[in-house]
Specification:
19 helices, single chain, 7-stranded mixed beta sheet, 5-stranded mixed beta sheet, Zincin-like, globular, Immunoglobulin-like, 631 residues
Length: 631
């Protein structure tokens, strides 16, 4: 929220108290502002950021791999707009040692009741003229944002590794902060690491190792707290272009340079679509396999899973996605986690446009059709589940983990909403609108209601377009007017699928296995006929080596259908995959499929006992629930 928005909040609060006989126009204005403020309330944060808020955060910490803790202090530069005597921060499990105001005065603080999801409020006594709050603290060894890896869990097997993952509400587990996407801050950091290791953050980074183990970082653009990120390990840097590069362990550097050869071209394509890239450099760090997501859009430094290193550049749409977040999510951010689709729906749409620009329309259409298939399946599951309202774009996650909103609804339904709007008004007008939206709201936070109002005023009304916006945003499921994305290549693949149960040899299918893309193979696996048997799957596996293909997307899809069909040829490869890969997108469907039978559940639990120590908390908390895991 900007300073103007905060000041407006207090003006309206005053009016609500003092104006007992407001005119109809005044009453309407007051009601509108009241509704806006309600939309801006973040139910996943304790912070009193309407009263007093951080403008800049400086971190000074040491990384201790032996104890698996971070320790040091954080300094908050604050603006006390209401002259309150209390400032509330979010913490979860942190040990608070002391708090100092303006570099000199030790002050009182209180840690409130602990909530398993939200952590605790840290209430600090301040003064109306306080400018700085310095908090001395350390993390627990089990802080949920931190993944500590021993040397054996890395590619090089020589040095330990640490990375953070703050989204959605985990930054409070390693930094005392106002942990809400509705607040944007600049930050700086001084980080001390052991000899031989390198530290990088979502900020300006050195590309060579420090001689004394200290690294300094600056992020001069305001960002939400969940985008503060740190990684420490045996890292090497390689340039990909004038303003792009990659950090990773030395043994992976050549593979990364090959895989990401088109990244500079992606940045150029993105700028041609929606304007200047405003973050300076765009670098990538490829992390160890335990990273729980495909990628995380930490500004200036995308955190990425090694599962995208397929060896044929077939999975780099993930990089296009994280790059697109430099506009949608990082430049313009969802104000609360109920508005998550504003980050991800826009980004999937933008990602697809980048891929079309770089690789052509047919390639982009295959990507979108694969996404749509996943949306259809997940939409049905959610409608039949405990929260069918989660098929809305605008969510109500109060009292729930915001991770529950990270579904295909936010990502793909959101993207298809924008793609359907594009079809309704024409691409040129839609592109001009979207570029203006990013420009008008840069470095700001936006609610769903703010976007809907902006959409109507700047696109629909000027072009006299009637559109079912409310059905898309506040309605269940996929509206009937959803744009249809189709490709002839998938029709040909489907024809091959229909033949599977009628042939004795794979050669009779007439598939040129060297000509198909990853997307064609995914479509093929997803459309294996219901009547296919375990013997049919063995026939396919013997020819196409799906079980041990080296492409994580294909292998994960293959394991799920093999479990359903009772094909056990996958077993040793699937076990190795589950032990070595921590990406939740892959783990969740595989473990869920195994848990459908008693035999499968026993197998899953046996594998999980070996695999769980390799997973980040984001992944193992999900799988714990699926398997009823109690240790």
């Amino acid at each position: 929220m900007s300073i103007n928005q905060i000041l407006r909040t207090f003006i309206i609060s005053f009016l609500l108290i003092s104006c007992s006989a407001a005119s109809p126009d005044q009453a309407e204005m007051i009601e509108h502002e009241k509704q806006t403020n309600e939309q801006l309330v973040d139910h996943h944060s304790y912070a009193n950021s309407f009263d007093v808020y951080t403008t800049h955060l400086h971190l000074n910490i040491s990384v201790d791999f032996d104890e698996e803790i971070l320790s040091g202090y954080v300094v908050h530069d604050i603006d006390n707009v209401s002259k309150t005597d209390k400032m509330i921060f979010d913490i979860n499990g942190l040990k608070i040692e002391k708090i100092v105001l303006d570099d000199e005065e030790v002050t009182n603080f209180e840690i409130g009741e602990h909530d398993e999801l939200l952590g605790s409020p840290l209430t600090v006594d301040i003064k109306p003229n306080t400018k700085k709050v310095q908090i001395f603290y350390s993390t627990p060894s089990d802080a949920k944002a931190l993944q500590w890896l021993n040397p054996q869990q890395t590619a090089g097997k020589q040095y330990p590794y640490l990375f953070t993952q703050g989204q959605a509400i985990l930054t409070r587990t390693w930094i005392p902060c106002q942990d809400t996407p509705g607040k944007r801050i600049t930050y700086s950091a001084d980080v001390e690491v052991p000899d031989g290791l390198m530290a990088v953050m979502s900020a300006d980074n050195d590309t060579v190792r420090s001689a004394d183990g200290w690294y300094h970082f600056e992020m001069t653009n305001p960002i939400p707290s969940y985008l503060i990120a740190l990684a420490v390990g045996d890292l090497e840097f390689a340039s990909l272009g004038e303003r792009t590069g990659v950090f990773t362990e030395p043994s992976l550097i050549d593979a990364c340079v090959y895989e990401f050869a088109d990244v500079e071209q992606m940045v150029i394509a993105a700028e041609e679509l929606y304007g200047e890239y405003k973050w300076g450099r765009y670098d990538i760090i490829v992390l160890p396999p335990s990273f729980p997501f495909g990628g995380m859009e930490n500004p200036k430094l995308t955190f990425a899973t090694p599962t995208i290193l397929a060896g044929d550049r077939s999975l780099v749409s993930l990089i296009a996605h994280e790059l697109a977040h430099s506009w949608s999510g990082n430049l313009v951010t969802n104000a609360t986690w109920n508005d998550f689709w504003l980050n991800e729906g826009f980004t999937v749409y933008f990602e697809n446009r980048i891929m079309e620009q770089v690789y052509g329309k047919e390639y982009a259409d295959m990507l979108m059709q694969i996404e749509y298939q996943g949306l259809e399946s997940e939409n049905e599951d959610i409608i039949d589940g405990e929260h069918p309202e989660d098929t809305h774009l605008k969510l109500d996650l109060q009292g729930r983990d915001p991770d529950e909103g990270m579904t295909a609804i936010a990502y793909v339904k959101g993207a298809l909403f924008l793609k359907t709007l594009e079809e309704a008004v024409g691409r040129d007008k839609f592109d001009a609108f979207l570029k203006k939206y990013f420009d008008d709201h840069e470095f700001e936070t936006v609610t769903t209601e703010m976007f809907v109002a902006y959409l109507k005023s700047n696109l629909l009304k000027p072009n006299n377009v009637e559109f079912n916006v409310d059905e898309w945003v506040y309605g269940k499921g996929i509206p009937d007017n959803c744009v249809k994305v189709e490709t002839d290549k998938f029709e040909l693949v489907s024809d091959k699928c229909d033949m599977i149960v009628d042939v004795d040899k794979v050669s009779e299918l007439g598939i040129d296995k060297d000509a198909w893309t990853t997307h064609e193979w995914l479509h093929f696996i997803r459309h294996i006929p219901e009547a296919a048997t375990a013997d049919d799957l063995k026939m396919l596996d013997d020819e196409f080596n799906f079980s041990n293909r080296g492409n994580s997307e294909i292998m994960a899809e293959w394991y799920v259908i093999s479990i359903e069909k009772g094909y056990h040829g996958i077993d040793p490869y699937m076990e190795k995959f589950l032990i070595n890969v921590g990406r939740r997108k892959f783990l969740e469907p595989i473990y869920s499929a195994l848990a459908e039978t008693d035999e499968g559940l026993d197998m899953a639990r046996n594998i999980y006992a070996k695999a769980r120590p390799n997973y980040h908390s984001i992944s193992y908390l999900t799988i714990d629930e699926i398997l009823g895991w109690e240790g």
